[in-house]
Succinyl-CoA synthetase alpha subunit
Amino acid sequence: MAILVDHNTRVICQGMTGWAGTHYSAAMMEYGTNVVGGVRLGKGGSHHLNLPVFDTVAEAITVTGANASMIFVPPPTAADAMIEAIEAEMPLVVALTERVPVQDMLRVRDCLKGSRTVLVGPNSQGILAPGLCKIGVMATGSERKGEIGVISRSASLTSEVTAQLSRAGLGQSTTVGIGGDAIHGLSMRDCFELFLRDPDTGGVVVIGEIGGAEEQELAEFVAETRPDIPVVALVVGRHAPAERRMGHAGAFQKGVGDAQSKIDALAAAGAIIASSPHLVGETMRKALQLKAA
């Protein structure tokens, strides 16, 4: 079983007719994802990748029965695309666009309040349920179906950790890139709660980095609930200079945003800390062995 997506997920792509939307929609279809159409204002009634294109998300939902949207829209208009999908009551929206203006994301956050939409991203690498559904830009080939959930803020480390888990004989239930921008939808804690409710997830890997306080918020939840599945955490950026943005908008440490405070909080909550990026898979394998003993 997976979280957020399954074999019944029907995906549209907002921005499908651009280069990125075309490339990644085609890759998703090749993987087996049920992509049912695209949205591009002014191109409604046309076809792209042999799929119908609609002027609005609402129209796409009505005609195709879509229950998920992937957003490949440039930063200046990405928030409007998210809001359109939320107002159309799209159940799942995965926003790949990075560097969406913070002020725009405040509008999106307000729109999400009381809505039925789960927003993943922006600046998400996507969602991957091996053998079931891929939404986004995640590399495939090394993933395997199994019981380990992965929550990540880092695209490159997600690929590395997925490969490590598979080499260790541990498949994945779902891998979720929650997004690296400062303001985004689904949080680490939200995602972890979904995994706890999934009977087929037997362990969770958390990949964190500098910036924000999501890792500390997750640590508080883990300390409160004391889950009976192992939680392995990797937090990168221990040697990053203070008060300097590293890469994307979310990777900025000030106060609680430094890596060591996140590591300390997760360790105190009972998570098992992987001491190096190349040890995550082996750390989870040993944790599962210890639990089974």
